[in-house]
Amino acid sequence: MEDKQVMNRKTSSKELHLISCGWEKCTPDQSYGPGVRRYYTVHFVLKGQGYFYINNRKYTLKAGQCFFIPPVVSTLYKAEPSDPWTYTWICFNGENAAALSEHCHLTLENPVQQLTSVIPYAETICEMMTHPQLTPSNEAYIQSSLYRIIAMLEEEFHASYTTMEANDNFYITQAVDYIKKSPFLDITVTDVADYLHISRSHLYGLFKKHLGTTPQAFLTSAKIINARELLTITDIPIANIATSCGYQNPFAFSRAFKKETGMTPREYREKYHHAEDLLDC
User: Fold this and answer.
1) Domain 182-278 has CATH 1.10.10.60
2) Which of 16, 161, 219, 222 has the lowest CB atom count within 10 Å?
C-alpha cells in the first residue's frame, strides 16, 4: 500500500485556484521544514499525532484537527515518534485566498482548529485526485471541490463561533444578574466566577469583550450604587454601610465612593439624604 499520493494540478481561476493536494502516512519523527511557501495550505489530520511550529509557537495536534499554513511564514511540522500522523492536505492561492481563509477563521494567530469530522474533507480531496487529466470538465470538478472545502470550513467555524457568542451572552447575563441580586453586594469577583463555574481570567475576558470594563470595576460600581441608595434613604451609619457593601476598611470604601461620585459618603449623605429622586443621577 502506498504511503503517499500527491496531485500537482494548478487550476486557472485568478480568484481561487488549486496548486496541489494529497495525503501521506508519515513515519516516526518525519518532518517538513523549516520552510516558507508562497501559497496557502491546510492539513487535515486523519490519524495519529504530530507537532506544528509557527509564529514562535508549538502546537500538538491529533486526529480530527486541521492546521493552516499561510504564505511567506516559516513553519515546521513533525510526526510524533510513537504515534505518527496520517494527514491529507490542500494547497491553494488566488486573489480571494486571504479573505476566504479569514472567513474560515484560519489565520496566523489562530492556525489550528478542531473539526467535527475530517472525513468529508478527506473524501473531497480523494475525489479531486481522481481527476488529474487536463480537461475542461476536470477543471470544473476540481474548482467546485475546492470551493466545497472552503464552504465546509466556513460553515463549521461560523457555527462554532456563533455558539461561543451565545455562551458568552449567557455567562454575562448570569454574572450581571448575580451581582445585582446579591444581598448588600458583599461579594467578590471570585464569588462571581465560582457561581458561574468559570475561572477569574475567563470572567475578565468576557467582561472586557462584551461590557468594555473589568469584573472588578463593574462590581465596584454596583456596590457604590447600593451604597448611594442606603446613604440616601436610611440612617444606617456609614461604617455599617461600608461593611454591608464588602468594605471592611471604611477608608477604602470612602476612596472608592469618591472615585465613583466625586464626593465622600458623608458629603453625599448631607446633600442627598431622603432625596430618592436623585438616585438615578
Assistant:
1) yes
2) 161
**What gap in Å lies between CA 180 and CA 61, rounded to an integer?**
43
* Mean pLDDT calculated for residue range 77-86: 96
Q: Each residue of 147-170: pLDDT tens digit? A: 999 988 888 776 555 555 556 777
- Domain map (residue ranges) of the chain: 4-160, 182-278
User: 106's torsion region: left (phi>0), alpha (psi -120 to 50) or beta?
Assistant: beta
Rounded to two decimals, the pTM is 0.57
Helices 189-196/215-233 angle, 10° precision: 110
Rounded alpha-carbon distances, angstroms, from residue 141 to 45, 95, 120, 127, 135: 24, 20, 16, 9, 10
Q: Nearest-CA neighbor of 175 among 151, 141, 202, 142?
A: 202
Average pLDDT on 112-117 reads: 89
278 pLDDT more than 50: no
- Provide the CATH number for the domain formed by 4-160 in this structure: 2.60.120.280
